[in-house]
Write the structure tokens for this entry.
Amino acid sequence: MQAFNDIADFSKDEISALIELATRLDRSPEPEALKGKVLSLLFLSPSLRTLASFQAAMTRLGGGSFVISPDMSIHGLESRPGIVMDGIAAEHIREAVPVIASYGDAIGIRAFAERKNLQHDLDEVEFSSLTELIDTPYINMESAMGHPCQNLADWKTMNDLGIPSNDGKFVLSWAFHPRALPLAVPASTLQMAAQRGMDITVLRPHGFELPEPIMHKARDAAAAAGGSIRESIDRREAMQDAHVIYAKSWSSTAHYGDKIADQELRNELDDWCVDDSWFDNARKDCRFMHCLPVRRGVVVADSVLDGPRSVVIPEARNRMLAQMAVLHQMMRIQK
Amino acid sequence: MQAFNDIADFSKDEISALIELATRLDRSPEPEALKGKVLSLLFLSPSLRTLASFQAAMTRLGGGSFVISPDMSIHGLESRPGIVMDGIAAEHIREAVPVIASYGDAIGIRAFAERKNLQHDLDEVEFSSLTELIDTPYINMESAMGHPCQNLADWKTMNDLGIPSNDGKFVLSWAFHPRALPLAVPASTLQMAAQRGMDITVLRPHGFELPEPIMHKARDAAAAAGGSIRESIDRREAMQDAHVIYAKSWSSTAHYGDKIADQELRNELDDWCVDDSWFDNARKDCRFMHCLPVRRGVVVADSVLDGPRSVVIPEARNRMLAQMAVLHQMMRIQK
Amino acid sequence: MQAFNDIADFSKDEISALIELATRLDRSPEPEALKGKVLSLLFLSPSLRTLASFQAAMTRLGGGSFVISPDMSIHGLESRPGIVMDGIAAEHIREAVPVIASYGDAIGIRAFAERKNLQHDLDEVEFSSLTELIDTPYINMESAMGHPCQNLADWKTMNDLGIPSNDGKFVLSWAFHPRALPLAVPASTLQMAAQRGMDITVLRPHGFELPEPIMHKARDAAAAAGGSIRESIDRREAMQDAHVIYAKSWSSTAHYGDKIADQELRNELDDWCVDDSWFDNARKDCRFMHCLPVRRGVVVADSVLDGPRSVVIPEARNRMLAQMAVLHQMMRIQK
């Protein structure tokens, strides 16, 4: 595997193989599989879970990792092309990224969306500008529109719980949050559920529609996999017979890059907090999923998060296992 | 071993076994003992020695670790129950701690005392609120009243030096420091020396008496182990025939949580700096111990710290060895 | 090997053996060579490449490392002798350095020059004050005047490219930079090229002459190795038939420690940016080397750095390989 960049790059069979491998590595550890192998971890945006789960994953497979993050004294990395670097930044990504990559057998990169221009972010201009600099196998640890490690972990989580693929009902719901957040998780989660062949409802207020290219790509995937996608602003209708609700806040797409207009719109929407009432007509065993971190009492009520519906902790643990499978395939093949 | 939380949880035989294991692992390394095993390290309070010694310990045993610390861009973790998280904090400990724990085979946790309410800290309310969230084996890397890794290292250090258990005279002395510091080290060090069966003098100014529940628990342990505990404010009397002085500053317990009153009281006490004169009537080979970090010229004179009495460097190295023994027992038993 | 402190401490044969070992470890990994071994990494000055390359190097050899850096909550380490520590600093290097060293089988230390007094820095007063505290084998990760890991990597890089030792023409050139930078790289690079037996031109403006003790030591090394050293302020003359130009900015030695005078002098020199015109009369395949980080459009033009002359990325990767050789020799011999 040369890149783990977008869940859409992988067939259902390839994903099944990765999930089987993840499950096997959990049951039968392979502490020598990646002996002496190095994963470079480059965070241009902050992280807790991703950093911890990747470092743990490499250790479990007998290798190791190092972390370059914005917390470190790296004086800010310059990324603008053709710039005269007479300001604060002492290093350009054109050197930093290839060098960091050259120390590893693979590199994980995280760079959040700029969230100024939607087309720019849909085109993954920023993330591509980094991966174009390297030949090393790489893993997308979250880009403007992608979070494939989360997607693989979520797919596995639903498998673990016996949630059906075809005929499984998946609600992807917007939730309130005081700040405008990136589209990476909702966009790539939609794609994941579509590839899994589920019947999906995207539940969101006006102004928070997912971008049409994202919807289009997911609809094609759903059709090919025997699933479906529809949109709704009606909680009750959306939650009817749902197997799972996947909650996540995201930016207003109607006002993308306009913080003030986004804020005005979302300020009215603080009742979009998932509480027990949302589950009235869902399946009795309907699950609550979230990629974490999650704001209690804002995105979801304590009673839901602390109750039996919530699978956020095993979901987060599956991040590590999913990544172990990706690392195993990526670095063993290199041999 | 499911938890290494309080030195009082372990019998003298169990402690001896841990110290023997620590000594053996120093002489005969076992670089495959914890192959592929992961230690999660969660610091809610800062660290240098503890972080370094745990990371080194895991490497020496063939495993690895990852660190989550307050230095990282983790936006502050919320800990209040039932809170509506519409402020700065983006994650609650109720998610963060179980997730971090789930990536490891064991977790080390550090959370200093709040130092607002003595009973609250004696009850380990804060630390318990973290460990209640997890099933993973855990290690106390310093809580409000406990520092068992330091205690085990100190016990081993005295063994290494041939300082007797019964009939060994141990002086635990308060020392000056510009700031009010936690009780974890003095409280747990007293308990350690008591369990070791030593004759202990707690030397401290008025207002700095250790809390009665701490004294009571230690007196019981001393009685059971054939030792004794007394208190003094007279250096000369306290140091008579001492084998070792263990210096440490701590908060005024008379004014616990009241920084101003504590400051007023301690400002008069800057002559509580251990210098050569303290050793006039001690045993000729009386040792100086301190858990580090230590302020030179404030807690202890350079001449003592740089002289032959000081064992602070081997004492600090024993932190790593003691922790290797704990990790070995904790993670091997899991198999 | 007890110390890797100064490239001048090693004979040409010893350096050749290290480079051969580095090349061999790249081709034939030894992921068990340093099993269970620990490298302590102490950064008193910031780092990206050095931290990443050392951590990766240890992993590739089957060991591990831990990092203590100024980014961490270590409250500043006190270094003044005899000080009463009643201020901010909670720990003195006299404890911190031996303790950190005691957790490793070797320690890497980085401490940049103070750049107040030239003789002080030439005498390596600060770095020596740290290494004097320890018995552990140590590696200089950059001191006031030394950067031996960079030197070894650069030597290997020239070997890899087939640049001749004797009769190889090496131009060490000053370059513009908005800030006054340390002398470690130019001083030790000059020494490296001299020991390699090259014909060296030091190209620099008035006021930026390298210190006479540095020049003297290098001239002796050049003479012994069959090379030569001259100085120039004329680019065209200096670059005549050059095999390689090694660009680096450094402080004015005429105004060492005087930031204002240095700034006034350098402000006139912003045309010292290596662009294509510099190579007019060099060898057609003349290479561009730099230790990184490098400021684009300031030290070097994009067209040079992005063109075929630039070898900065493989040069940086050789840092890791060179360090693997040093670590291998240092820690295997200890057995």
Observations:
- Chain B touches chain C through 39 residues (CB under 8 Å).
- The CA atoms of residues 53 and 320 of chain B lie 5 Å apart.
- The first helix of chain B runs from residue 12 to 27.
- DSSP finds twelve helices and twelve strands in chain B.
